[in-house]
Amino acid sequence: MLDQKQKIKIKETTEEFFKKMTPAVLGVEVVLSSVDGLPGAEEKEVVDLNIKLDEPQILIGQGGQTLFEIQRLLKMILNKKLQSIFYLNLDINDYKKKKVEYLKKIAEDLANEVSLTKQEKTLSPMPAYERRIIHSELSGRTDVITESRGEGLERHIVIKPK
Hints:
Blueprint: H1 4-21, E1 25-35, E2 44-53, H2 57-60, H3 65-82, E3 87-92, H4 95-117, E4 121-122, H5 128-138, E5 144-149, E6 156-161
Parallel strand pairs: 2-3
Antiparallel strand pairs: 1-2, 4-6, 5-6
Helix pairs in contact: 4-5
Protein backbone atom coordinates (compact mmCIF):
# COMPACT_ATOMS: atom_id res chain seq x y z
CA MET A 1 0.00 0.00 0.00
CA LEU A 2 1.19 3.49 -0.80
CA ASP A 3 1.57 5.75 2.23
CA GLN A 4 0.74 9.46 2.47
CA LYS A 5 4.34 10.47 1.74
CA GLN A 6 4.33 8.42 -1.48
CA LYS A 7 0.97 9.91 -2.50
CA ILE A 8 2.37 13.42 -2.10
CA LYS A 9 5.46 12.43 -4.11
CA ILE A 10 3.22 11.05 -6.90
CA LYS A 11 1.28 14.33 -7.06
CA GLU A 12 4.42 16.50 -7.01
CA THR A 13 6.22 14.39 -9.60
CA THR A 14 3.17 14.36 -11.87
CA GLU A 15 2.71 18.15 -11.59
CA GLU A 16 6.40 18.68 -12.37
CA PHE A 17 6.20 16.25 -15.32
CA PHE A 18 3.27 18.09 -16.91
CA LYS A 19 4.58 21.59 -16.19
CA LYS A 20 7.74 20.69 -18.08
CA MET A 21 5.61 19.41 -20.97
CA THR A 22 3.13 22.26 -21.21
CA PRO A 23 2.35 25.44 -19.27
CA ALA A 24 -1.40 24.80 -19.66
CA VAL A 25 -1.77 22.41 -16.69
CA LEU A 26 -4.61 23.63 -14.47
CA GLY A 27 -4.29 21.01 -11.77
CA VAL A 28 -3.50 17.44 -10.91
CA GLU A 29 -6.03 15.36 -9.02
CA VAL A 30 -4.66 12.16 -7.50
CA VAL A 31 -7.15 9.49 -6.41
CA LEU A 32 -5.85 6.22 -5.00
CA SER A 33 -7.77 2.98 -4.75
CA SER A 34 -6.88 -0.66 -4.20
CA VAL A 35 -8.01 -3.61 -6.25
CA ASP A 36 -7.60 -7.28 -5.56
CA GLY A 37 -5.11 -9.13 -7.66
CA LEU A 38 -5.64 -12.58 -9.03
CA PRO A 39 -6.40 -15.31 -6.50
CA GLY A 40 -3.24 -15.99 -4.53
CA ALA A 41 -1.59 -12.80 -5.83
CA GLU A 42 -0.82 -9.71 -3.82
CA GLU A 43 -3.22 -6.79 -3.73
CA LYS A 44 -2.23 -4.24 -6.37
CA GLU A 45 -2.41 -0.50 -5.85
CA VAL A 46 -4.15 1.55 -8.54
CA VAL A 47 -3.28 5.23 -8.92
CA ASP A 48 -5.88 7.23 -10.81
CA LEU A 49 -4.56 10.58 -12.08
CA ASN A 50 -6.92 13.06 -13.70
CA ILE A 51 -5.19 16.04 -15.29
CA LYS A 52 -7.08 19.24 -16.17
CA LEU A 53 -5.82 21.24 -19.16
CA ASP A 54 -7.00 24.25 -21.19
CA GLU A 55 -5.91 22.61 -24.46
CA PRO A 56 -5.95 18.84 -23.85
CA GLN A 57 -5.95 17.60 -27.46
CA ILE A 58 -2.19 17.86 -27.93
CA LEU A 59 -1.63 15.52 -24.96
CA ILE A 60 -4.51 13.18 -25.84
CA GLY A 61 -3.63 12.70 -29.50
CA GLN A 62 -5.58 10.88 -32.18
CA GLY A 63 -7.72 8.19 -30.59
CA GLY A 64 -6.00 8.74 -27.24
CA GLN A 65 -2.69 7.31 -28.47
CA THR A 66 -0.54 10.15 -27.05
CA LEU A 67 -2.36 9.86 -23.72
CA PHE A 68 -1.54 6.14 -23.50
CA GLU A 69 2.12 6.76 -24.32
CA ILE A 70 2.33 9.53 -21.69
CA GLN A 71 0.71 7.15 -19.18
CA ARG A 72 3.33 4.50 -19.95
CA LEU A 73 6.20 6.97 -19.58
CA LEU A 74 4.83 8.52 -16.37
CA LYS A 75 4.28 5.06 -14.87
CA MET A 76 7.93 4.15 -15.49
CA ILE A 77 9.11 7.43 -13.91
CA LEU A 78 6.88 7.04 -10.84
CA ASN A 79 7.68 3.35 -10.32
CA LYS A 80 11.41 4.10 -10.43
CA LYS A 81 11.19 7.22 -8.24
CA LEU A 82 9.05 5.55 -5.56
CA GLN A 83 10.72 2.13 -5.80
CA SER A 84 7.19 0.74 -5.77
CA ILE A 85 5.16 -1.01 -8.44
CA PHE A 86 1.54 -0.04 -8.96
CA TYR A 87 -0.93 0.36 -11.79
CA LEU A 88 -1.37 3.85 -13.22
CA ASN A 89 -4.53 5.11 -14.87
CA LEU A 90 -3.97 8.55 -16.39
CA ASP A 91 -6.88 10.58 -17.75
CA ILE A 92 -6.87 14.09 -19.19
CA ASN A 93 -10.06 16.17 -18.86
CA ASP A 94 -12.03 12.91 -18.37
CA TYR A 95 -11.23 11.79 -21.94
CA LYS A 96 -11.14 8.07 -21.08
CA LYS A 97 -14.29 8.28 -18.97
CA LYS A 98 -16.20 10.00 -21.78
CA LYS A 99 -14.81 7.55 -24.35
CA VAL A 100 -16.05 4.56 -22.30
CA GLU A 101 -19.52 6.11 -21.98
CA TYR A 102 -19.57 6.79 -25.74
CA LEU A 103 -18.51 3.23 -26.62
CA LYS A 104 -21.16 1.73 -24.31
CA LYS A 105 -23.84 3.92 -25.89
CA ILE A 106 -22.75 2.96 -29.42
CA ALA A 107 -22.70 -0.73 -28.42
CA GLU A 108 -26.23 -0.57 -27.02
CA ASP A 109 -27.62 1.39 -29.98
CA LEU A 110 -26.08 -0.96 -32.55
CA ALA A 111 -27.13 -4.06 -30.60
CA ASN A 112 -30.70 -2.79 -30.52
CA GLU A 113 -30.57 -2.18 -34.26
CA VAL A 114 -29.15 -5.67 -34.93
CA SER A 115 -31.80 -7.23 -32.71
CA LEU A 116 -34.54 -5.40 -34.60
CA THR A 117 -33.28 -5.85 -38.18
CA LYS A 118 -31.59 -9.25 -37.72
CA GLN A 119 -28.65 -7.95 -39.80
CA GLU A 120 -25.10 -7.86 -38.47
CA LYS A 121 -23.27 -4.57 -37.95
CA THR A 122 -19.54 -4.02 -38.36
CA LEU A 123 -17.78 -1.39 -36.27
CA SER A 124 -14.68 0.52 -37.32
CA PRO A 125 -11.29 -0.91 -36.35
CA MET A 126 -10.36 -0.08 -32.76
CA PRO A 127 -7.72 -0.91 -30.15
CA ALA A 128 -8.09 -3.96 -27.90
CA TYR A 129 -9.16 -2.00 -24.80
CA GLU A 130 -12.04 -0.42 -26.77
CA ARG A 131 -13.12 -3.78 -28.18
CA ARG A 132 -13.11 -5.18 -24.62
CA ILE A 133 -15.53 -2.43 -23.55
CA ILE A 134 -17.94 -3.31 -26.39
CA HIS A 135 -17.72 -7.07 -25.75
CA SER A 136 -18.22 -6.55 -22.02
CA GLU A 137 -21.17 -4.20 -22.46
CA LEU A 138 -23.03 -6.65 -24.72
CA SER A 139 -22.00 -9.90 -23.01
CA GLY A 140 -25.16 -10.06 -20.92
CA ARG A 141 -27.52 -9.75 -23.86
CA THR A 142 -29.30 -12.84 -25.13
CA ASP A 143 -30.40 -11.41 -28.48
CA VAL A 144 -26.97 -10.55 -29.98
CA ILE A 145 -23.39 -11.85 -29.96
CA THR A 146 -20.12 -10.06 -30.65
CA GLU A 147 -16.93 -11.25 -32.24
CA SER A 148 -13.64 -9.63 -33.20
CA ARG A 149 -12.41 -10.03 -36.77
CA GLY A 150 -9.36 -8.91 -38.68
CA GLU A 151 -5.71 -8.61 -37.76
CA GLY A 152 -3.54 -5.90 -36.24
CA LEU A 153 -4.74 -2.34 -36.83
CA GLU A 154 -7.69 -3.64 -38.87
CA ARG A 155 -9.18 -5.68 -35.98
CA HIS A 156 -12.81 -4.74 -35.46
CA ILE A 157 -16.03 -5.98 -33.85
CA VAL A 158 -19.04 -7.48 -35.57
CA ILE A 159 -22.37 -7.53 -33.74
CA LYS A 160 -24.60 -10.36 -34.96
CA PRO A 161 -28.12 -11.55 -34.11
CA LYS A 162 -28.28 -14.79 -32.12
